[in-house]
Recover the amino acids of this structure.
């Protein structure tokens, strides 16, 4: 683990005022957790050029070859809202992808998807350190990665910025834009009613209206993704018109 740079952007409100750049770490989320012992400033970003043990949601791995963008943001929200923050951070991720030419949408809860292929993922974790609740929002974007550098089992369902856009976009440029968007989102999160953000999220969520099968520890249901509840749950209407709330588990779009 080698720190190769440090950047400051004092014009930002909170997120990304300081960025620490590493050449290589196991996982930026894990690095964040290790560093939490020190009194780190809220909004600090840890960015790595590659990860040897990148992690995804639900215990999956996140392939992190060079060329991709991998970073974590350390936040200290008042309420213990790691999960909802992870949901809402999908909004700036999609905005950044669109800004750079990929008209992505959000597959519930927070996969950025373009033409049914995943291009970015978010892993948000809540951690306590000496009574202080921290949220680590880890984001991985397949920016300058060739599809064949990703594991064979994900190639069929993944895509990359490089593959979709002809123009070269440097990672620092993408990160800069994305951090501005996350900074805005987080200040709205702190200052406005969550309903407004949920509406915003709903507008970007391309799962709504689709037929889905949701599998949780309690079993699986199939129906139409109908709405996002105020708690961030996906409301699924089954074939008998009964509504179900889905939060954690696996979600498949079905024909
Ligand atoms: C997912 O879609 O399953 C979430 C993927 C999250 C990947 C990012 S890359 C930076 C941060 N460090 C990790 O180990 N994971 C997240």
């Amino acid at each position: 683990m080698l720190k190769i740079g440090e950047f400051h952007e004092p014009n930002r409100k909170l997120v990304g005022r300081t960025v620490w750049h590493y050449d290589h770490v196991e996982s930026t989320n894990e690095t964040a957790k290790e560093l939490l012992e020190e009194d780190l400033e809220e909004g600090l970003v840890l960015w790595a050029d590659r990860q040897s043990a990148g992690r995804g949601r639900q215990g999956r791995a996140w392939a992190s070859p060079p060329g991709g963008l991998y970073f974590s943001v350390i936040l200290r929200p008042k309420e213990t809202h790691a999960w909802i923050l992870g949901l809402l951070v999908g909004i700036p991720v999609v905005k950044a992808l669109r800004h750079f030419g990929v008209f992505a949408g959000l597959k519930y809860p927070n996969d950025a998807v373009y033409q049914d292929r995943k291009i970015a993922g978010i892993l948000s974790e809540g951690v306590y350190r000496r009574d202080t609740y921290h949220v680590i929002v880890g984001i991985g974007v397949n920016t300058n990665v060739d599809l064949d550098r990703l594991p064979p089992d994900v190639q069929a369902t993944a895509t990359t910025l490089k593959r979709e856009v002809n123009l070269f976009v440097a990672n620092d440029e993408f990160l800069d834009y994305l951090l501005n968007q996350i900074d805005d989102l987080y200040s709205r999160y702190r200052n406005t009613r969550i309903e407004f953000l949920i509406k915003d999220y709903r507008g970007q969520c391309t799962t709504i209206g689709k037929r889905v099968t949701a599998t949780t520890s309690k079993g699986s249901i199939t129906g139409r993704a109908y709405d996002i509840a105020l708690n961030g749950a996906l409301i699924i209407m089954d074939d008998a018109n009964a509504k179900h709330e889905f939060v954690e588990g696996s979600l498949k779009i079905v024909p």
Notes: Residues 100 and 169 are 8 Å apart (CA to CA). Helices lie at 28-35, 82-88, 90-99, 152-155, 161-164, 171-191, 194-204. The pocket of biotin is lined by residues 27-29, 51, 54-57, 60, 62, 70-72, 111, 121-123, 138-140 (CB under 6 Å). Residues 171-191 form the longest helix (21 residues).
